[in-house]
Design goal:
By secondary structure, the protein is α/β, with parallel strands linked by helices. The chain folds into two domains: 242 residues, Aldolase class I (TIM Barrel, Alpha-Beta Barrel); 82 residues, Translation factors (Elongation Factor Tu (Ef-tu), domain 3, Beta Barrel), CATH 2.40.30. It is built from ten helices and 21 strands. An eight-stranded parallel barrel has the order 1-2-3-4-5-6-7-11, surrounded by six helices. It has a seven-stranded antiparallel beta sheet with strand order 17-16-21-13-14-20-18, with no helix packed on it. Strand 3, helix 3 and strand 4 form a beta-alpha-beta unit. Helix 1 runs parallel beside helix 9. The chain binds iron/sulfur cluster.
Length: 413
């Protein structure tokens, strides 16, 4: 049994650095074209080259997505683009479309091909089919049970990648037409409008224009909107399944999300790997994951049949605000912090680092980047110096629990 890779999304260079700091073994990202997240902060080619170099210096692999379902007019561009990806040293290319695999095999035969979850591989014969086409790794459909996953890993002898955390589609990935139909934006060309997350009403045919609320709860109904997948409780089963790579969803999620989710899964995988016989699940892990933006959690299809309670009545739940990230540790306990949300001197906040539990911290005096004592309030996009009460490290995170009176309502807001 080989220790599986932890594969983290990197929506931009900063997220890539943070993911690596918090324990990613590999990152996946998109270059300027042909990925599936038009709105994610995709990498321009030159930056992609720098990102690959940076990741390799940290012994982290980089996989580049080329996973749209292209049209004829895209094919020449894709051929050129695949060569560029190979030249800049990417470790693999993530593809959904058989035509693009065909082009990759002709033009960049040395570049490993990973089959995207968009191709919906749901059984071992499909996996073997793709293996025969020269695919090195398959990211299986998210709709499989543990039993099905085990059978595929056992009978195919190839690298299998699994989504273990993050947003789910209500349809098979790559087969959803909702967004195109309702908003004219094609999810399969990287432009999903998240139509499944919208609020819906019921209208009886003869009473046009009368919208009857369907109430899952006081917010209305969101029956197409799935809860987020969370398999933190199943790390031993996942590792024993023989899968090679555990993937986190979310190239458009925040740095806070990336860092915390990476931290928790890193800890869980390492804990099991170090001492399998005496492994104990830590219930704090799920609690910590729930402090990042989520739509409530489900194990989806992992346990054999679909979770009956898979749809969520809410949009993303956010119980904590991301206040800032340490840009530079200036001394053992003083750091320059890049601010992302407003807070004030005297606030009780939480401080989380790469290892260990979150610590409480009362914000004392705040200095500006030149070291001059600052006003009491810090605003997003400022950089300020904050005193910590223990050694602080670059990329440590500050966050604050949402409660009555917080976020602060300032006189001018
Ligand atoms: S509309 Fe929803 S189900 Fe369809 S692709 Fe987008 S996120 Fe997935």
């Amino acid at each position: 049994m080989k220790k599986p890779e932890l594969l983290i999304p990197a929506g931009n260079f900063e997220k890539l650095k943070v993911a690596i700091h918090y324990g990613a073994d590999a990152v996946y990202l998109a270059g300027p074209e042909y990925g599936l997240r038009k709105k994610a902060g995709n990498f321009p080619l030159q930056e992609l080259e720098e990102a690959v170099k940076y990741a390799h210096e940290k012994e982290t692999k980089v996989y580049v997505t080329v996973n749209i379902y292209p049209r004829n007019s895209d094919l020449n561009g894709i051929t050129v683009y695949l060569k560029e990806i190979e030249n800049l040293g990417a470790d693999a290319v993530i593809i959904s479309d058989p035509g693009v695999i065909h082009i990759a095999k002709k033009t960049v035969p040395q570049l490993p091909v990973h089959l995207s979850t968009q191709a919906n591989t749901t059984n071992r014969e499909s996996a073997l089919f793709w293996k025969n086409q020269g695919v090195k790794r398959i990211c299986l459909a998210r709709e499989l049970s543990l039993q099905e996953i085990k059978e595929i890993t056992k009978k195919t002898d190839m690298e299998i990648e699994l989504f273990i955390h993050g947003a789910m589609c209500i349809s098979y990935s790559g087969r959803c037409l909702m967004s195109k139909y309702m908003a004219g934006r094609d999810a399969n060309e990287g432009d999903c409008s998240q139509t499944c997350r919208w609020k819906y009403y019921l209208m009886e045919d003869k009473r046009k224009g009368e919208y009857f609320p369907v109430e899952q709860d006081e917010r209305g109904t969101y029956f197409f909107s799935s809860k987020d997948l969370c398999l933190i409780k199943y790390i031993p089963e996942l590792i024993q399944s023989g899968a090679s790579s555990f993937k986190i969803e979310g190239r458009m999620k925040s740095i806070y999300y990336n860092s915390m989710v990476t931290k928790i899964y890193r800890e869980a995988i390492d804990t099991y790997w170090k001492n399998r016989e005496n492994y104990l699940y830590n219930s704090e892990w799920e609690k910590e994951l729930s402090k990042t933006s989520n739509r409530d959690f489900t194990t989806a299809f992992f346990n054999g049949k679909a979770d009956n309670d898979i749809s969520t009545s809410s949009n993303a739940i956010q119980t904590y605000d991301f206040l800032g990230i340490v840009k530079e540790a200036l001394s053992q306990s003083r750091a320059l912090v890049d601010i992302r949300n407003k807070f004030v001197s005297g606030d009780d906040v939480e401080w989380v680092g790469k290892r260990g539990k979150p610590a409480s911290l009362k914000i004392g005096s705040i200095l500006d980047a030149e070291g001059v004592r600052k006003k009491e309030v810090v605003q997003p996009n400022e950089e300020v110096i904050i005193q910590f009460d223990a050694p602080v490290e670059k990329y440590d995170i500050l966050r604050k629990k949402r409660n009555e009176g917080y976020p602060h309502k300032m006189p001018d807001s």
